[in-house]
What does this fold into?
Amino acid sequence: MLSPALSSARSKRALALAMGIGLVLSLGLLVAPRAQGVLIDFDVDPGLYTGTNLYVPTETMTITITATPGDVWDLTILDFVAGTPSASINGQTVGASGVKTIPWEVPTSWPDGANYRVELRPGGSVGGPIRTYRFLIQEYTFSVRTDRGAYLPGDQVVVSWSATRIRDGAPAAAGVGDIQVVDAFDAPMLTPPVHNFTAAEGFFGFTLSPTTATGQNPLVHGWFNDTAGLRVGFDVSSFTVNELGLIVSVDANVYPPSAIV
It folds into this structure.
């Protein structure tokens, strides 16, 4: 039989342990994250000027969360490869309608790129996103082209370029760019080998050497970007250098002797 003193000590230890467990549980209830409801849908409207996941600077992207009313969500928008630039839109509470719409304007300071993403997380979560939306930023399209698709050795070739704003089709602001033309052996066909320019659109001409090898498809490479280096465009086109050809058509496939073809 235990002595009264030993029994009392054990009772005190049991009581202390019970109180400690109760305190931990109480604190756990106090710091436990709020239970999240059900995410029904996560949607981003396509770009206004493209109808795709490509957006232009200053365009407003509309993000819609459909979930349980009262749920809180966090958004991160970033270049997920480089990590920057990035923007956080936290503490977005879904209203009684069950739909939360969040507008976000594409900053002019964010460079053109194809590695942007919208990430959705439960409010206060530090884990990975539960939904993502990948998108591109681009201000203008850039193209290079020749005035014809085929040439003879010794012909003049006219090369033109244009950088056009996606928003309204107007020429982009002046910047810097160059164009190079190389043959099938990667040898320069221009003298000097690079044509530099600053205007968003223009053209120039050069003459093919009379000794240019025929049966080849030279390439025209071009790029253009604004002076800040945030907007950039690339393009490649080709043309054919060949001998004269002749296409002949006849009225019939078979003719009798002495018939006129």
User: Anything to note?
Assistant: The first strand starts at residue 39 and ends at 44.
